[in-house]
C-alpha cells in the first residue's frame, strides 16, 4: 500500500515548465540545482521541466506566449517587454549582480578606447540584452562613442571565447571561470568588471505573467521555486563541497564539470564574496533597479516610462523567506 501511495503521489506531482538558458556557468549552477532537484524536495512538486534556449530574449517571449510557466530570463528583455505592455512580474533574482567580465587580448587591445579608435568588434549574446547595455554603459563612462564599435551577436559564451582566441573579435563578455581559463592561452586581460562599475548589475530574473500568477496553485508554485532557489543560494554560500558537487552535475562545460579546487574554489570565493551573487535577494526592489535604468535609457534599450513598482513584486519572495524561517 505504501508503495502504491508513493507512486500515486509521484504521478500527481506538479510539473512546472520553466524557460532558462541552454548553458549553465558557475554562477548559474545554484539556480539550476534548485530547479532540477530542489523542487523535488518540496511536497507536491516534481523537478521542473526545463526548456533551454540559446537566445536570451526568447525566454521572456515564450513566457509571455504561454509556452512556459516561468522564466529564468535576462533583465533587459523582461523590462523591455513590460515597458511595451506585456503583463509581467519579476518575482525573484536568478542570481544577484553579474559574473560576466569583458575580456580582450592585451597584445592587440589595451582598452575599450583602442577598440573604438580602430572600429573594432565586440561580441555579445544579443543586441539590447544586459551584456550589450553593460558594455555601452562602460563606454559612456569613458566618454567613448558606441557608434565607433561594431557589435555582433554570438549566443554561446563558449563560442564568444573561441572567437576571441581565434582573433575574430576584439573583446567579449565571458564568465569569470572562463576568464581564468583563457589566461593560460595568452595575454588576456579584463577590460570591464561590472560589479566595480555599478553597485548591482542585475543580469537575470525569475519572472512570470500576472495572469499566470492569479491562480492559487500557481502562487504556491512561485513560492516553491523561490524557496528552492534561496535554499540553493544559502547552501552555495556556506558549503563549498556541496557547490562543487552541483557544478559536477549541472554545469554545461565539460572543463568546468571536471574543474579541480585550484580553479573552482577561487571562482566560488569570488562569487560568494566579492560579487555576492547568492544573497537572499534583498536587492529585488524598485529602488535598486532604478539605479541602472539611466544606463538602459542611454543605450536605447528602454524608454524610461516603466513603473518599476508595478513590475517588481516581492510578495512571493517574502512568503518564501517567511516559510524558510
Automatic annotation (TrEMBL):
Residues 59-232 form the SsuA/THI5-like domain. InterPro entries: SsuA/THI5. It comes from the Bacteria. SUPFAM superfamilies: Periplasmic binding protein-like II. This is NitT/TauT family transport system substrate-binding protein. It comes from Faunimonas pinastri. The lineage of its organism: Bacteria, Pseudomonadati, Pseudomonadota, Alphaproteobacteria, Hyphomicrobiales.
Amino acid at each position: 500500500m505504501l508503495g502504491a501511495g508513493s507512486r500515486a503521489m509521484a504521478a500527481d506531482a506538479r510539473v512546472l515548465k520553466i524557460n532558462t538558458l541552454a548553458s549553465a556557468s558557475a554562477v548559474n549552477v545554484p539556480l539550476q540545482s534548485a530547479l532540477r532537484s530542489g523542487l523535488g524536495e518540496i511536497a507536491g512538486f516534481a523537478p521542473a521541466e526545463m526548456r533551454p534556449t540559446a537566445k536570451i530574449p526568447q525566454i521572456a517571449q515564450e513566457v509571455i506566449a504561454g509556452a512556459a510557466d516561468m522564466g529564468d530570463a535576462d533583465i533587459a528583455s523582461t523590462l523591455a517587454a513590460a515597458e511595451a505592455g506585456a503583463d509581467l512580474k519579476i518575482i525573484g533574482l536568478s542570481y544577484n549582480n553579474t559574473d560576466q567580465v569583458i575580456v580582450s587580448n592585451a597584445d592587440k587591445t589595451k582598452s575599450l578606447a583602442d577598440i573604438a579608435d580602430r572600429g573594432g568588434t565586440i561580441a555579445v549574446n544579443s543586441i539590447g540584452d544586459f551584456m550589450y547595455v553593460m558594455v555601452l554603459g562602460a563606454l559612456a563612462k569613458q566618454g567613448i562613442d558606441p557608434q565607433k564599435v561594431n557589435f555582433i551577436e554570438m549566443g554561446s559564451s563558449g563560442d564568444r571565447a573561441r572567437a576571441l582566441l581565434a582573433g575574430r573579435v576584439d573583446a567579449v563578455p565571458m564568465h569569470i571561470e572562463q576568464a581564468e581559463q583563457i589566461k593560460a592561452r595568452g595575454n588576456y586581460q579584463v577590460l570591464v568588471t561590472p560589479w566595480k562599475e555599478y553597485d548591482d548589475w542585475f543580469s537575470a530574473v525569475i519572472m512570470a505573467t500576472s495572469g499566470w500568477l492569479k491562480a492559487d496553485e500557481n502562487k504556491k508554485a512561485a513560492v516553491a521555486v523561490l524557496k528552492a532557489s534561496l535554499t540553493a543560494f544559502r547552501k552555495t554560500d556556506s558549503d563549498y563541497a556541496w557547490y562543487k558537487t552541483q557544478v559536477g552535475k549541472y554545469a554545461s562545460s565539460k572543463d568546468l564539470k571536471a574543474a579541480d579546487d585550484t580553479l573552482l574554489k577561487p571562482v566560488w570565493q569570488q562569487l560568494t564574496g566579492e560579487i555576492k551573487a547568492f544573497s537572499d535577494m534583498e536587492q529585488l526592489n524598485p529602488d535598486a533597479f532604478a539605479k541602472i535604468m539611466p544606463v538602459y535609457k542611454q543605450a536605447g534599450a528602454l524608454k524610461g516610462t516603466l513603473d518599476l513598482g508595478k513590475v517588481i513584486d516581492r510578495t512571493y519572495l517574502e512568503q518564501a523567506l517567511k516559510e524558510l524561517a
